[in-house]
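Hi everyone,

Forwarding the result from last night's run.
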Amino acid sequence: MRMNLSHQPVILMRPGAANDRLADLLQRQDGIRAWRWPAYAITLPEDESLVSDRLAHLDDFDMVVLASPAAVTAAAHWVREWPKHLTLATVGEGTARVIRAAWGDDVSVLCPPGEAESSGSEALFEILRHGVIPSRVLIIRGQSGREWLSENLIQLGADVEKVCAYVRVPLELSPEQQDQLTMSMCGEGPIVYITSTDAVATLLHAVRPIPGARDWIVSGRAITIHPRCADRLREAGFKHVEISAAADEAVRQRILSNLIVRS
């Protein structure tokens, strides 16, 4: 049912096409014009040859870890089909679905079962720790990340290499977005949907030019998909934080349940 009443801003910060998909769903189903503030824009590295050469020669690896949808999208730029001897791994079922969408439903992917709150590097590591530790692992990532997973695999005897296959460009608000933010700060704090711990700092950095914006942001309600991100949001000052399943409809229902409508 579409809403005709006004409400506090809804800020969507998931990177990539998933953010637009959720925003379109809210617009179509509920008449909510969410603010599309993806925490990062994803671009390819300036020197693509380094990644191209690495991904063209994978005979010496046993496992490739694609830890995020951005890593999948980047790898798909170079890899049409994975060598049969490789095991693909990721940290959750959501990214596993993205992997299969990129390379077919028959692709075998090792990942933790269940919803987002039971996913992550720790959950993947537990699976690996109780199985056969791969001797050579390639982690496909952005400029940084998955340090914990890398260090713990090395402690178990694996040889780990990391390749920067994409670059994350943090959110910077346009003048129009800054004006929209300033005008909204006289009302209720926003509903913020945010999916990674890094994105919390990105959000607070992006609003820094506007006096009082940080306090207004954290006075609102945050929705996330993982306990670690929930903890980071509370550390940043959010008092109301909820964990949702990652599916668009589940997030939509969480957003609707937190709307404060005004006549």
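The longest strand covers residues 136-141.

Cheers,
N.
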